[in-house]
């Protein structure tokens, strides 16, 4: 990281440059020329370097303020700005000093100094054509926050002549779910409604929809990872439906229902903590196929203190399945999913899901 220079050192360098060669224009609007003097016959040999600062630290009304250089798009800047002021300043250093004294969140210098107040923190990984300096206290270095799916921005994108909506994910457990990814070709291209598509360096991967709760994992910042969405199926969450009987109503062949253990499967870990005693029953007027997919049990076949199972009823016959030890897929008229107990070691668990199809 570039060294933070005090104003007096910068001005001294500029003064030396002016004496020896005359001041030259900086290479960028938000840079200054700094002279590095070397020995010579007259003691006045110097080279002038154009410096763009990664950070600038200035004294504010109550404390020192460190501004960090960030790129941003004009639209993102407009969306977070609540107030802006033009400030008289001759260079980026003076602009920083005046902005700090005015207690402003950020500033930009492109020959003119503009200071800003923001309504929220900016993600540290933003990009764009505009350069601003943002107070370090107003930069977020953690993962971006999720937003409701209905308000999340998206871009219409076409891949393999298929129209998708491109959203940004806050996270994806790629290390856990990588074995369930496949190349986006063949069956996946023919049936994109059953997959979420993840760009990779040399093409695209396809993730079955039951491994990722996209609707609970999107953000409104560009700091996430892109995901392409063709279809969102009706979705339920076990932890939100405890004690309920849910009547599914498939209308057409190929209709799907997704049941996730918790909101955020695939991007947020299963929430250990309380003692669960949860039963959820799903019924259907027509026989449905159901597939269980889980990252909930350990290598020893236990669920870290929980019991996870289901009771399936088909044509009046009941069957009980231990989902901590068994992989399972079958058809049903009614299925009751049961989660009980308390986590013993609170080891990481991605969660589990059920994929129901007419």
TrEMBL record:
Superkingdom of origin: Eukaryota
Protein name: Uncharacterized protein LOC108668253
């Amino acid at each position: 990281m570039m060294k933070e220079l005090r104003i007096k050192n910068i001005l001294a360098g500029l003064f030396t440059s002016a004496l020896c060669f005359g001041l030259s224009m900086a290479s960028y609007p938000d840079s200054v020329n700094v002279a590095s003097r070397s020995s010579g016959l007259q003691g006045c040999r110097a080279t002038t370097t154009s410096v763009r600062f990664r950070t600038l630290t200035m004294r504010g009304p109550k404390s020192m303020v460190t501004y960090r250089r960030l790129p941003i798009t004009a639209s993102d800047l407009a969306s977070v700005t609540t107030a802006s002021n033009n400030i008289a300043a001759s260079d980026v250093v003076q602009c920083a000093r005046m902005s700090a004294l005015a207690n402003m969140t950020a500033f930009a210098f492109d020959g003119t100094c503009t200071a800003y107040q923001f309504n929220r923190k900016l993600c540290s990984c933003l990009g764009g054509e505009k350069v601003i300096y943002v107070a370090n206290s107003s930069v977020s270095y953690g993962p971006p926050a999720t937003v409701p799916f209905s308000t999340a921005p998206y871009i219409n994108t076409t891949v393999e002549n298929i129209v998708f909506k491109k959203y940004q994910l806050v996270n994806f457990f790629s290390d856990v779910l990588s074995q369930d990814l496949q190349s986006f070709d063949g069956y996946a291209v023919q049936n994109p409604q059953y997959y979420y598509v993840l760009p990779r360096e040399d093409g695209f991967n396809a993730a079955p929809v039951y491994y990722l709760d996209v609707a609970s994992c999107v953000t409104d910042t560009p700091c996430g990872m892109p995901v392409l969405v063709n279809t969102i199926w009706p979705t339920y969450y076990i932890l939100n439906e405890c004690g309920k009987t849910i009547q599914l109503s498939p209308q057409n062949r190929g209709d799907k229902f997704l049941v996730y253990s918790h909101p955020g499967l695939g991007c947020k870990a299963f929430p250990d903590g309380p003692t669960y005693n949860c039963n959820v029953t799903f019924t259907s007027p027509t026989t449905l196929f159901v597939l269980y997919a889980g990252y909930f049990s350990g290598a020893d076949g236990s669920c870290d203190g929980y019991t996870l199972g289901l009771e399936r009823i088909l044509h009046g016959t009941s069957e009980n399945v231990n989902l901590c030890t068994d992989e399972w897929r079958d058809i049903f008229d009614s299925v009751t999913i049961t989660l009980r107990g308390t986590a013993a070691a609170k080891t990481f668990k991605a969660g589990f899901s059920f994929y129901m199809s007419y």
